[in-house]
Amino acid sequence: MGRSSAFKSGIVALAGKPNVGKSSLLNALLDYKLAIVSDKPQTTRTSIRGVLNRPGLQLIICDTPGLHLPRHALGRAIVSNAETALEASDVVCLVIDGTDRDIDAEDREVVGKILKAARPVILAVNKMDLVKNSDALKRLVSQYNEVCPAVETAYISARTRSNLDTLVDVIARRLDDSSPTYDEDVLTDRPERFLASELIREKVLKLTEEEVPHSVAVEIEEYKSPDEYPERNVLYIRAALLVERPGQKGILLGEKGNRIREIGRLARLDIESMTGHKAFLELWVKVRPKWRQSEDAVRRLGLKE
Ligand SMILES: Nc1nc2c(ncn2[C@@H]2O[C@H](COP(=O)(O)OP(=O)(O)OP(=O)(O)O)[C@@H](O)[C@H]2O)c(=O)[nH]1
Ligand SMILES: [Mg+2]
After folding, report:
1. Where, residue-wise, is CATH 3.30.300.20 in the chain?
2. How far does residue 58's CA lie from ligand 2's centre (Å)?
3. CATH 1.10.510.10 for the 192-300 domain, yes or no
4. pLDDT digits (tens, 9 = 90+) for 38-97
5. Distance between CA atoms of 31 and 274, rounded to whole angstroms?
6. Which site in 135, 137, 139, 272 is 20 to 30 Å from 304, CA atoms measured?
7. Pocket lining: 18 vs ligand 1, CB cutoff 6 Å
8. What is the pTM of this model?
9. Once rounded to an integer, what is the mean pLDDT over residues 8-27?
10. Which residue is closest in CA terms to ligand 1's atom 16?
11. Per CATH, which fold does 3-173 belong to?
12. Which of 14, 20, 24 maximizes ligand 1 atoms within 8 Å of its Cβ, making it the mutation to test the pocket?
């Protein structure tokens, strides 16, 4: 093959602290809502790959959970999932929030985990739509470059989609020549029922506050799609929302069951537009004391990769 016709392909891991906009960036790059997003930290718990195809390029973009200092088995699993994804990547895109002020000890530890992967690092400064103070931004970027020298820096906004083509070019330049890994019609490595369970969790994150959203896991108990059961005309999903305490169950249910009904309604609409099927979604709440402290429970829920 001549040089001009070389095909590039590889895996870029989007990594960084919680809440900086990694999942939003994945979705913006794909122009498809694949990963769930919320305004609360530690939304993403497991990695998810999305495939971006451009002429001469297949970029496998891996959204990873936010790196932080974990406090329980779930947190340890989340961080380990991110580290596993970093090790499987060819290039790391360190996503930071451009509105942040000086980096602190925790930020340094997060960067340390990224350095361990020993991959070329591209710094993506996100949320540029909110950045007002350019001196503070310059200081932040130079502090990051001190602890984690980046081969290139891109200033972007996942929300307004600014500079995303530049970011893709910058990443592609760091990839080796290689044939594509996935067929053109593959969007993600995750099955539909996983995506559906995440959409349910996204609505829990949206409609609850403080410790509650973090204490919830979604367990799909039954998933019957017209794709597999042609005699059906609706997608049937029964899912349990696991919480740690009876009080959290009460909060999830809400007055007269109002909250869980709203969670179900919003999730159903998203699941219907994702699958193209009418859906019947049955949700119930189950108390599983201290599940986040239990390595076993975390693993059985598929939260440790
Ligand atoms: N203004 C602005 N907000 C953004 C941008 N990107 C993401 N956000 C917001 O930042 C918040 C966190 O976004 P996520 O994409 O969930 O962040 P994350 O890095 O994946 O977070 P974790 O999964 O917890 O690690 C959400 O409220 C997003 O809407 C951006 O470019 N501009
Ligand atoms: Mg995320």
Report:
1. 192-300
2. 22
3. no
4. 999 999 999 999 999 999 999 999 999 999 999 999 999 999 999 999 999 999 999 999
5. 14
6. 272
7. yes
8. 0.97
9. 98
10. 37
11. Rossmann fold (3.40.50)
12. 24
Q: What tokens were used for 131?
A: 């950045």
Give CA–CA dist 66/91, Å, rounded: 17
